[in-house]
Write a structure and sequence with these properties.
This protein has one domain. It starts with 7 loop residues before the first helix and ends with a helix. It is mostly helical and about 40 residues long.
């Protein structure tokens, strides 16, 4: 499964465009990767 890093705002915008009522969201909060994630944005 593909992993995508995005902000909560981006996630909400993506879901609002989905016409499917069924989807699975797996959210991981990786504290040790927090600095790397901020650099990538």
């Amino acid at each position: 499964m593909e992993k995508t890093v995005m902000t909560v705002k981006e996630l909400i915008e993506l879901l609002s465009k989905q016409e499917d009522d069924e989807y699975i969201i797996h959210v991981e909060f990786a504290e040790e990767d927090e600095e790397d994630a901020e650099e990538a944005l």
